[in-house]
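Researcher: Please generate the 3D structure of the following complex. Treat every line as part of one assembly.
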Amino acid sequence: MTLKNKFLIPLVLFFILVGFLALGLNRDPHEIPSPLVNKPAPAFELPTLNDDKLFSPTDYKGKVWLLNVWATWCVSCRQEHPVLIALTQQHHIPVVGLSYKEIQPQETQLNQLPADQKLQLARQRSQLFLNQLGNPYVLSVMDMDGRVGIQYGVYGVPETYVIDQQGVIRYKHVGPVTPELIDKKLLPLLRQLEKT
Amino acid sequence: MKRIIGAFVFILIFANTLYAREAQPYAEDPVVEARLLVLADELRCLVCQNESLASSRAELAEDLRREVRNLIRQGKTDAQIKFFLVERYGDFVLYRPEVKPITWILWFGPFLLLLIAVWSLWRYLCMRSDALLQHQQAKIEPLENSITPKD
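Model: Done. Output below.
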């Protein structure tokens, strides 16, 4: 490098640094890319909100559907609820709910109840929530101990998964579903998946 | 009367000890717990991202510790347990990510930077000594010329 433009070196370094910082500032550290995208959705069998008949993701083979992780104690879920309802009303897309740890560990007294009573209680609470705010779900399964949640890599409720006809997870979103996300990401992806 | 009061106070003071029990062991299986601690120290909690799975009090950390405990009891190796978590939560859960093409820059980047820094320092020093030499040469030459005897 000639002596003439030597003064540019710190300037260039500065802009590289600014670039990195800008990138860091605009990324949400809570959004961790899921390794499950483009992998088969983990299998499970869980009782639903309405009855003890077990639901398994293989029941929905051949369909494009959403799996939405929710709970009545989850504040962001309330925020996303009307968005989900609008989505299901405007587009024929089945949304399956996964009720994640409805009875929380800090509810110590309730946790001493036998499992079937806990399940009944969780169902009552969830049903009440859906009666009050509307029900976007075709069905909702009860993941009482959060084990299925771990299989799906759930770390912050609400979370939403797009699963295709072959039962492969095609997209994962952490946090409440927003109208922008639906328009910009979900609908184009769903249309593309439904064509195949 | 004094005696009765004395006895009463005595009873009051030691009444607590009636409820005292021997300290419960922290976990049912200390061997499992010891392995869990070592493992969980290497794993990141996804909720409080700057805490390890061992130290986090987040609910998810609690659940994941339970899962890891189960895997230990099933006789899984450390590598298998780590793989279980990476499969679901990604490389992010590992404090020491695996060495593979995508993490090369992370592992070797600092050394590369060091190499570049040493190389440029060396280049700079060479250039400087060259310049110094030339500078001195320029100063010495006229002197040398003046010293050389005139024929």
